[in-house]
Structures are given as C-alpha cells and as structure tokens.
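Field notebook, page 468. I keep forgetting to write these up properly, so this time I am using the form the group agreed on. The chain and the ligand, iron/sulfur cluster, are recorded exactly as supplied. Prediction of the bound pose follows.
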Amino acid sequence: MRTYGCQMNVHDSERISGLLDEAGYVPVLEGSTPDLVVFNTCAVRENADNKLYGNLGHLKPLKERTPGMQIAVGGCLAQKDQGTILDKAPYVDVVFGTHNVGSLPVLLERARVEQEAQVELLESLEVFPSTLPARRESPYSAWVSISVGCDNTCTFCIVPSLRGKEEDRRPGDVLREIEVLVEQGVLEVTLLGQNVNSYGRSFGDREAFGKLLRAAGRTGLDRIRFTSPHPRDFTDDVIAAMAETPAVCPSLHMPLQSGSDAVLKAMRRSYRSERYLGILDRVRSQIPDAAITTDIIVGFPGESDADFDETLRVVEASRFAGAFTFQYSPRPGTPAATYDDQVPPEVVAERYQRLVALQEQITYDGMLAQVGRTVEVLLSQGEGRKDGPAQMTGRARDNRLVHLPREQACRPGDLVEVAVTGAAPHYLRADEPLLSHRRTAAGDAWAAGRALRTPGVSLGMPSVGVPA
Ligand code: SF4
C-alpha cells in the first residue's frame, strides 16, 4: 500500500487494508515481491501526477516478471484522471475512486477472472468508508472520519470536485466507533473532515460539532484532536466545548491561507483577517496554552507586495506554534489556475523565504516558552529521526514534539509526565528523569506487535442529533 496526501487518504488506506485483510490478503514484508500493489493517490500538488506515473513506470518490469501480480490505483488522482491512467499505464488492473473504496476486492477479482482492467468511479459516495473494516498501524491513536467532501468552493482547491459535496456521518456511528476504539485501548482520536466545523449542517444542527466534542469527551478517551476546521464556521460553542472538555487537546490547526482580505476574497475563503484574528483571541482567552498552527499559500494570483505584507502582519499577530507554508501552484481544474495575474515564480520564491524566516522565529519562540513547564507526553513510534537505544519521542497535549532519553520500561502508547528542559526550533527536550509513567493497554498492544483491526461501524439509525 502506497499512500499519498492528506489524513483523509491515510484514513481511507486503513480501510483499504482492512478490506484486503478480510479478502485474504496479508501485508507484504518490505523488499519481497507483492502479489498486489495499491496506490492511494493525491491530486492537490502538481507533482502528484509525476509521482504516480513515475512509480507505475518503475513497477512495469516487475509486473511483467511476476505472473498474477496486480496493480490498483485509487484516491483523488484516480477520481480526476479516471481512464487516462490506463492510457498512460495499460498494465494497471484496477482504477477506483474516492467514493467507492469498498468495491476494490470485487474489482480485483473481476480483473483476474476476466483478464481485463477494471475502471469503476462514482460521482457520489457509495458507502461511508467508516462502515468498512480497518487495519490501523497505531494501537494508541486513530483517525475517525466525521464527514467526507466539502461544500466550500475555495478557488485554489480541487477537493470538492474529487470528494464531492459534504456528507456527515451520523453522530451515533461516530461515537460507536470511538467506543470500539477505546475498548481496544486507543488513547487518542483525531476527528477528521475537510471542514469539521460545518458538521451537522446535513441534519440541521449547527452546534453538532461542539456537542460531538463533548460527547466524545465522555467515552474515556485521553486525547481528542480534530482537523480541519474552517474559520468561517468556527463558532463560540466549539471554543467552549474545547475549553470545557478535558480530553480535547489544546491544539488547533486552522488554515489562514492568506492575511490579505483582497486575496482571501479571490480565494473565496468567506472570512477576512479581522475575523480570523478574533477567533484566535477568543480561543486564547478560554484556552491560554492553545498551540495554534495553520496553512498559508504564498503567491496566489493577483497577490501584490501590499497583500503579502498583510500576510506577514497577520502571521506576526497570530503567534502560530507552526505553519505549513506553500508556494502557490496552479492546479488544473481549479478556477484560480485560469486567473490571468499569476505571480512570477521568482517573486513567489522570494516572498516564501521571508514568510518561512518569520514563522521559523515565531515557532522557536513558542518552543522556548515551554522550557520549565511540566507536560504529558504520549510516546509514539517513528516520529523521532534519532529514536533508538538512547532516545524516544512523543507528543505533548499541545501536539509539540518532545524528545527524551530512552527508558527501557517505556513503550510507544505509554503516557509519561516530564519537565521540559530545552527547546529547538521544531521540538522540545526533556532530559530529566520521568515525573510519572503510565503503562497502557496500547503500549502492551504495541509491545505485542498487534496492529489494530476494527470492524466497520454503521448503526443504521436515522440522522438524530448528537447526545447533548
Ligand atoms: S475548505 Fe476549501 S480548501 Fe478546504 S477542502 Fe474545502 S474547498 Fe478545499
């Protein structure tokens, strides 16, 4: 399984793995020849195409040497390119889309029996991916999708045309899935949606997301996170739910995209910088330690020097704990790709460097401010490049990365309390002895090498409101 792109794709890949498990497939060991290769693709960045077709090209000779081997391509690029994938790579066996993840095993079987490539894409959701079984790589943290698709029309974004209109999962299904995960020892859940704040619009409850946070906070979870909110729909009931639900972590990722009101208008982001900054003020007044991160695009068509200065002003005022920064790249199929006033690449690159330099300093200042504090760390696997006999790594509740000396008794999935003794631009250090160590069932599962297999969840109940 090769997964590209966002958390939504990671979530879908866990479902694809769960489905294939049930169909009798087993994960192949790194370096040995698989019978099946699945690409779950992304379509957000220009080089997403090059990456896929490059990888398919590399696989061609292996497929020719391995009778019966199958290749399947799914995800957003498959949804966008459809049959074109077979034109460019006729040795692909199955092309499936973002709306019919569940049909992969049947399509593979049909391609094998009929000795013919199968292309099946739907324009709208067949079944909620969350009703499908999942194999999750982590026994201690899990993605739980609450909605798919998006009703917004940001002019740089291709997601709505590939993932469709927003469809909300029934609150009962979401909470039942969380309960199953808690029973299996999961400590942390990230609620997932293209725009989590508009959750409930489809069943007429504008405060459904805040209520869902509160209800999830009563399931026994240690940590609740969510991504991505949209500033236009970020309401005070959500801030109150975050502040009043102990399990909800004080970390918030809220895309700004630009600090210029003129550019936000051209992006069709339906909020302006003043509203954005106002939300941050209200969040910080109720959650003073909140670590807020964001996404910013530099060089959107029509962005002037004055517009970019506005972005720097808002970034300076926002004091983000971190930011994902992007140089604008026109995405075929999006309105902005056809705009006349594209900004010259050298201007975009120069502005990008200035933004990164400013945010790097702000991020580091935020890290330095943590020194001397006591934080709870959920130990993780694979997040620290230098992890090994001497070092282990985890995430604090505000999602900052923490490196600490390895303790033999500690396993990924355990919770420890530590004093922050140092800071670097992108992580904290905790070099003094642990203040506390909570061994968890998730840590036991990790030590036993157990991947987390969860059944699909669909209670089939009508869209009732979220239990208040
Ligand atoms: S909110 Fe905008 S950027 Fe986000 S997925 Fe929807 S259209 Fe794309």
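OBSERVATIONS:
- The longest strand covers residues 291-298.
- Confidence is low (pLDDT under 50) at residues 460-468.
FOLLOW-UP: compare against the apo run.
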